[in-house]
Amino acid sequence: MTTGTQSLQSRFTGLFLNPADSRLYACIRIAFAFVSLLNLMQIWPDREIFFTDVGMVDQEVVRKYTVGAYLSVFDLCHDVFAVTNYMFFSGCAMVMLLLGVWPRLAAGIVYVWYVSYAMRAPLILVGWDEVLRCTAFLVLVSPMPACWSWRSRRARKRAPTELQVPCYGLTLMKVQLAAIYLQAVLARLDNEYWMSGDFMSFFLLSHNSRWPGLWVLNYGFLLKIVTYLVLLVELAIPILLVVPRWRWFGFGAGILLHAGISLMSYNLMLFFLAMMTLYLSFLQPEDMNWLQRRLPRPRAR
């Protein structure tokens, strides 16, 4: 094997097995569990409409048109009592994941929840459901360090907090974020409204806009520029995040992009938070050191 091949193989292996700061995984675990709880709370009031046999979609119809195997816990939950209990059980798992109590088991339960309701109620799915379901799987297969978790003193002694763990989970989350943006841009290349630059104007005139109205017609040229700028920014963000000296420009561009979407759109704050969870995988140990210096420290006895 040549030296160049060995170097390439070593770099590729390092993308998955190089040591990473365990606090990064803990930060992502906490953020993901928090956003998952918000998502469940948003669905909770409409659980009877979405998931029961007397609701919006009959389960047999969903099963008939499902491509592949129909895998859903809601196959066993047909009334509002059963659905309520299952959602409460899943919410408890999200709290456990947030606190770091049996995190692997909790992450598995949360992942099953996302798969189950995506199968049972495909009509309610929106962008952040897909993002959270993918993130749930990545959190499940990633290292689960003991740091920033609520565990007993005996458990801490048996499994001391790891300072460094393999970085494969962070790498997969970075790839996932880049794939989301790339897929979004590629899907729009066939869309006449995006290619003509008219998408933003039509969107702000629709019911999805927070402030729809004829005022949009006065800013047609500006909105055409914004339409093309969104495509450019979505292509640039993964590149900016990967390059160390440019990563804060990537963070800034991503935050401005999704904050703008949340500001101008109706009810898309969860999409902003779901995407920011994946952004955390691009943080560095020095960022965690800065954050930890600003967190309140427990008082010494």
Which keywords apply here?
2% strand; mainly alpha; 2 strands; 2 domains; 301 residues
Draw up the topology in text.
Elements: H1 3-17, E1 19-21, H2 22-43, H3 47-51, H4 59-65, H5 80-99, H6 103-120, H7 127-141, H8 153-158, E2 164-166, H9 168-188, H10 192-196, H11 199-205, H12 220-242, H13 247-264, H14 269-279, H15 285-294
Antiparallel strand pairs: 1-2
Helix pairs in contact: 2-5, 2-7, 2-14, 5-6, 6-7, 7-9, 7-14, 9-12, 12-13, 13-14
Number of helices: 15
Total tally of structural domains: 2
Q: Quick check: average pLDDT?
A: 87
Q: Helicity range of the residues?
A: 55-70%
From the alpha carbons, calculate the radius of gyration and give it in angstroms: 22 Å
Strand order of the largest sheet: 1-2
Strand content: under 5%
Largest sheet: 2 strands, antiparallel
Our measurement of the CA-to-CA distance between the termini, rounded to an integer number of angstroms, reads: 58 Å
Compute the number of strand runs: 2
Order of helices and strands: HEHHHHHHHEHHHHHHH
Ranges with pLDDT <50 over ≥5 residues? none
- Helix/strand-derived class? mainly alpha
Query: What shape does the CA trace take?
Result: globular
